[in-house]
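Input (structure):
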């Protein structure tokens, strides 16, 4: 399954948006323009659809209530609305899904309720659109979506499972290095990499070893003196650790655990593991951080090669404003976020921009100047 279209009303930075998505989609925009919030739509739907610890009220709570998800630029219409279209299969076997969800707050407590919920398969209604007659007779029903209810989503369970399977990765190396000291709760299916060790340990040994060997082969040309990657369990504490061997003057080299590895090495390991782990949508938030530009340039090629070896072509949406990352991409969907006084707008490249890229210029050369802050030269005038 893959998302093909996203329509938003009053979501965070975006008063409105209507965009098409491809198997590889790069979201480009300046700081604070809404790149993270755009990826957040898929995380929001994922939390709603999760059968364990999810649901509408939990999703809204994670984003700070209705005030946290509703656009500050919402004026006449206060509802927040999300609509997605999903394609499953190809050719004659293709199925097209449409899911729409509108939310509003009600009462003094401003509790969030469903203002609209629609599910369609190949243009035909799967459930009775909400609010239904039963909903109006018992408004408490509107505090939950049909998406999250096993008894209600039977006819579109495959869509619900797909939405719940989204993976988001924005690995923060310090959380991984100091996981023992930080402990506490791992947030929202661990978006920041703190539970990477647990995810690797939960994978069967055969699959885990095969993935680690692929990562090892990839790391060797990218990291000086790197030679081996192991995943071992501490016999005393029972905790699992990544261990990397670096060659030097000693015959056996030197072994380092994850808390001794560089931030870039950990982010690269996390990226390579995430690309091999799962088949549903993968969201990558600024994967270029902490990495050398020479490595960043090759991330799009790395993604394509890894996906080529997977049984299913996994959809990946990447947020970035990296010149190096945008230097060599091809056959990808590009989306540009442009902030304005009435919120952010998002668009594909114009015909003129497409002509420039087809004429030999890179996406970085054509598109990055469009998102350059207008008064950035004054940043150096701090007094």
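Output (sequence):
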């Amino acid at each position: 399954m893959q998302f093909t279209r996203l329509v938003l009303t009053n979501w965070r930075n975006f008063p409105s948006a209507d965009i098409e998505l491809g198997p590889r989609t790069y979201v480009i925009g300046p700081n604070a323009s809404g790149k993270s919030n755009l990826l957040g739509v898929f995380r929001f739907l994922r939390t709603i659809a999760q059968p364990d610890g999810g649901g509408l009220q939990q999703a809204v709570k994670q984003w700070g209530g209705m005030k946290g998800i509703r656009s500050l630029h919402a004026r006449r219409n206060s509802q927040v609305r999300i609509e997605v279209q999903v394609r499953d299969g190809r050719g004659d076997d293709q199925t097209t899904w449409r899911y729409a969800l509108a939310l509003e707050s009600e009462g003094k407590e401003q509790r969030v309720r469903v203002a609209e919920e629609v599910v369609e398969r190949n243009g035909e209604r799967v459930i009775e659109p909400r609010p239904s007659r039963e909903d109006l007779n018992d408004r408490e029903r509107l505090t939950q979506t049909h998406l999250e209810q096993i008894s209600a989503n039977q006819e579109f369970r495959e869509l619900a499972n797909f939405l719940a399977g989204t993976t988001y990765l924005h690995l923060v190396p310090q959380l991984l290095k100091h996981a023992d000291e930080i402990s506490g709760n791992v947030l929202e299916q661990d978006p920041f990499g703190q539970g990477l060790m647990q995810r690797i340990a939960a994978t069967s040994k055969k699959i885990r070893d095969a993935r680690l060997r692929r990562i090892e082969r990839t790391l060797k040309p990218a990291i000086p003196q790197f030679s081996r990657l192991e995943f071992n369990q501490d016999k005393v504490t029972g905790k699992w650790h990544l261990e990397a061997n670096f060659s030097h003057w000693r015959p056996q080299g030197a072994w380092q655990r994850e808390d001794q590895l560089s931030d870039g090495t950990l982010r690269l390991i996390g990226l390579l593991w995430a690309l091999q782990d799962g088949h549903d949508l993968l969201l990558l938030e600024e994967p270029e951080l902490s990495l050398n530009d020479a490595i960043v340039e090759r991330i799009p090629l790395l993604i394509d090669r890894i996906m080529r070896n997977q049984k299913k072509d996994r959809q990946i949406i990447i947020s970035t404003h990296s010149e190096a990352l945008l230097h060599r991409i091809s056959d990808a969907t590009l989306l540009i976020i442009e902030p304005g006084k009435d919120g952010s707008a998002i668009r594909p490249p114009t015909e003129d921009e497409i002509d420039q890229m087809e004429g030999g210029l890179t996406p970085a050369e054509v598109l990055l100047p469009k998102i350059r802050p207008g008064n950035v030269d004054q940043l150096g005038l701090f007094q």
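Notes: The mean pLDDT is 87. Residues 2-166+315-371 form a domain with the Rossmann fold fold (CATH 3.40.50.300).
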